[in-house]
Design goal:
The protein is mostly beta strands and 90 residues long. The protein is built from no helices and nine strands.
C-alpha cells in the first residue's frame, strides 16, 4: 500500500497530501499512528499533524514556513485561509 501523505522532516508539524484526501479518511503517519482528517485536503496541500495554536509556527522541511492565523486542529487542511505565509522582508 502506498502512502497518502509525506512528512518531509521529523520536526514538521504539517504533512503533504500525495493525493486528494477526503474528510473522515484516515492516513498512516510515519510513526505508525493513524490520523483522521477533519477536512478535505487537495493533492500537494498541507495537513496539520498536531493541534497548532493561533500564532504558532507552521513547520515544513524542518523550517518555519508561516504561522497559524487561528487555532488549527490536528487533521485539518492547512492553507492560506488559516496560515499566514511570512514575507522574506518581514
Amino acid at each position: 500500500m502506498s502512502s497518502k501523505i509525506i512528512v518531509i522532516n521529523p520536526k514538521d508539524n504539517v504533512a503533504v497530501a500525495l493525493q486528494n484526501l477526503q474528510a473522515g479518511e484516515s492516513v498512516d503517519l510515519p510513526n505508525g499512528v493513524s490520523l483522521r482528517l477533519l477536512s478535505d485536503v487537495p493533492y500537494s496541500h498541507k495537513i496539520a499533524l498536531v493541534d497548532i495554536p493561533k500564532g504558532a509556527s507552521m513547520i515544513k522541511y524542518g523550517e518555519i514556513i508561516g504561522e497559524a492565523k487561528m487555532a488549527v486542529r490536528k487533521g485539518e487542511w492547512v492553507h492560506t485561509h488559516n496560515m499566514h505565509i511570512r514575507d522574506v522582508n518581514e
